[in-house]
Amino acid sequence: MPHSPSFSELGLSEPLVLTVERLGFTQPTPVQTACIPAMLGGRDVLGEAQTGTGKTGAFGLPLIDRIDAGTRAVQALVIAPTRELANQVAEALGGFAQAMAGIDILPVYGGQPMGIQLRRLRAGPQIVVGTPGRIVDHMKRGTLALDTLRLVVLDEADEMLRMGFIDDIEWILEQTPTHRQTALFSATMPAPIRRIAHRHLRNPEEIRIGAGNEAGADIDQSYCLVDARHKVEALARILEVEPERDAAIVFARTKAATLEIAEALAKHGHKVSALNGDMEQKERERVVAELRDGRLDVIVATDVAARGIDVPRISHVFNFDAPGDAEAYVHRIGRTGRAGRKGRAILFLEPRKRRILHDIEKLTGKPVRTHPVPDLKDVAASRQGRFAKRVEALLNSGKSEQHNELVDALLARCNTSERDLASALVALATEMTPLLPPNGAHADPLFIRAQEREPTRRPTRDPQERRGREARGEPAPRRERPGAREATADMVRYYMPVGRQDGIGAREIVGALTHEGGLSGGDIGRIGLMDHYSHVDLPAALSESAIRRLARIHVAQRKLELTLETPELVQARAETPEVPRPNVRTAPARGEKPARTGRSPSFGKPSHAKGGEKPPRKPRAFAGADKNAGRGPSRGKPPGARTARNAGTLAIRRKPV
Fold first, then answer.
1. Segment 57-75, tens digit of pLDDT
2. Tell me: the pLDDT tens digits for 485-504?
3. Architecture of the CATH domain 8-208
4. Superfamily in which the 214-374 domain is placed by CATH
5. Judging by DSSP bridges, how do beta strands 527-529 and 534-539 pair with one another?
6. Which option is the CATH number for 477-572: 1.10.10, 3.30.43, 3.30.300, 3.30.70?
7. Would strands 298-301 and 272-275 be described as parallel, antiparallel, or unpaired?
8. What is the pTM of this model?
């Protein structure tokens, strides 16, 4: 068995070794064993190591050891992608510097009062830890001088690349002294990061811990195939039945989705909170603190908001929305399985996104197994087991004996058996979370397993049929989005008064619904494109909040309004007789310009000659159309379509498919 050195054998000073031991660190991790001697020797370091392997100590301990506490000037600069990680690194460095009197560490990031940072910078901290944007801001203001800088550390460089900070990083490094020491750490090593390393690091010591994800060795990874509309229910069930679950992070793609998922899980009885970039820094810190001390068990977060979170309680990571690539997946699951602890990572996948599994397995070097969604009987069994443990613990504590007199009184009053009384008390105690599955649980209506669904096959086109159609002068059949889901009873068709003549295609509609609306590709069904209008099939189970969000999205820089029509209004429109539009042409007077006809910029709103007769007012076809009620029908629109309120605004009506 190879010898594992102690911290004292790595070359650290004695006061620092004693501080590390007081903090509870007895043995250096592999990345610390490799990095500390190299950095103490003044060499540049290029480290490929996942978060959770101890790399903060790998660069933080030699950094503290090399600081001159008697010089009040910036000697070390640590750059981190997010404010959470910057705070975490600053706290860790502060812990290491406990025995080194006179070392001042300052975190700087956006959202923190600028005045406080300016006062602290004037005092001359030796170490500055910050995000790229705020560091650049201070350097351009002249409030952060780096002429005395001796060491620069880039922490989680690939995440800074993903967040678009690469130009800021290049600019910062170009302003630093050429003789400075540089350490770059990254969980993965994409080509742009390697190019930065080759430009700004001098003959670096390359340290690679594990095959891309050493921390993943302690993480059990699995994936669950589930349709988008059933993800929340599936997540709630898995949270109930997972053994040895403590705290969990659920990753969502958008800020709005974090709020929706957290609200849904709270209704299932979970102690949960959202965590996203719209929250104030103090509120975000409060959420993390409550997760750490057990007042919260689940947080639903975006990638950016979760960076830097290191909570030992986190046993599970759920990828509610699949990450954009395998590298993002590695960063997400790094929140669990840290420092030798075991962890679980569960990925929710829609069938069409299975391709990411191959990339994940290739990067992590580990297989990702399938994970079944629990049925109602599994959930009931898990609840019964937890309830039995609580009852057993209460009986063993002896606290239940104080209620013996009340039990005797209830038996006498209700004139029932002890067994029936116990059943009634259990029912009362579990009224909010029933222990038994509802009637008909044998036919669980949650979903049809995604792997059992028949794939949608695209019909083949007959060349002879196409040539015959062209010879007869018939138009080509409308094109549907490739791979679109067939319309079913659980889908709703939305009509949009915009089509091919407006420069809108299926790509723009899908892009707006997914990128701005927060829907996944699996939510989007058939798309039909006409000349003057289009339609798209979306799940009928869309929540009210999802409908409100869709009302705010844009297609081709135009706001998309979503109108939900009730069955009563649809029936009323069907029963309202159509008022025929008079087909009268009035010849213009000599020298007078004829009235303009045809489509106007406002989706076909008819134009009328000055003084000409307008068509009769048409009855209102839907509620809330006060501004446009009574206007004539627009050309090229289906009957009953709503006229947009303003030019360039899309209006949608909803009807069952």
1. 999 999 999 999 889 999 9
2. 444 456 777 777 667 776 77
3. 3-Layer(aba) Sandwich (3.40)
4. P-loop containing nucleotide triphosphate hydrolases (3.40.50.300)
5. antiparallel
6. 3.30.70
7. parallel
8. 0.51
